[in-house]
Amino acid sequence: MVDLAKRSFFSRNKIDDTSIRLPWLDKATVFTDLCTRCGKCAEKCETSIIVKGDGGFPTVDFSIDECTFCYQCAEVCPESLFLPKSEQPWNAKALINDSCLAFNNVECRSCGDMCETMAIKFKLEIGKVAQPEIELDECSGCGACVAVCPTSSINVSNLV
Fold it and tell me: Taking every annotated instance into account, which residue ranges of this chain make up the domain 4Fe-4S ferredoxin-type (predicted)?
């Protein structure tokens, strides 16, 4: 059992509660207590976005690709960490920071082109290129917009 709160006491790094672990994780269970770090979820991930994170625990890296919500990570897991597929995978949403090319008046719509749910819309403004806006109600948190962003201006994190 790894107590990340105690572990962070000796480190300058803070544990980020908004970071994405895996979809359909049961919040009622203590992930670090039950996850055996066997790596089966990473092996089964069809887009290879599940990587070893802090302490060897699996985490999602959207700079590699997107989550297709295939549920294979949950199906292969030998522990009872996951909710049924009928539940919402996570409360994660994409957020765009100030380094976005459009915010700096450079035309770029790569994130919107990749957004399957069309949650990223571009609003026309006088004297500027179209500005991206994320409709959070439509965003699935899949991360498709992250890897294609040329300035790494998009992050997906859990809404707390």
Answer: 26-55, 56-87, 130-159
> What mean pLDDT, rounded, does the chain reach?
89
The mean pLDDT value for 55-79 works out to 95
Cα 92-128-125 angle, rounded to 5 deg: 70
Q: Does 142 appear as a known binding residue?
A: yes
139 is in an annotated binding site: yes
Domains of the chain, by residue range, sit at 16-76, 92-158
114 touches 150 (CB < 8 A): no
Average pLDDT over every residue of 108-135: 96
100 is in an annotated binding site: no
Measuring CA to CA, how many Å separate 89 from each of 30, 67, 81, 116, 125? 17, 10, 13, 16, 35
Query: Is residue 145 part of an annotated ligand binding site?
Result: yes
**Whether CATH 3.30.70.20 fits 92-158:** yes
pLDDT at 159: 77
CATH 3.90.470.20 fits 16-76, yes or no: no
Identity of the residue numbered 61: D
**Model pLDDT for residues 12-40, shown as the tens digit of each residue:** 444 445 568 899 998 867 888 899 999 99
pTM: 0.83
115 a known binding residue? no
Q: Is 149 annotated as a binding residue?
A: yes
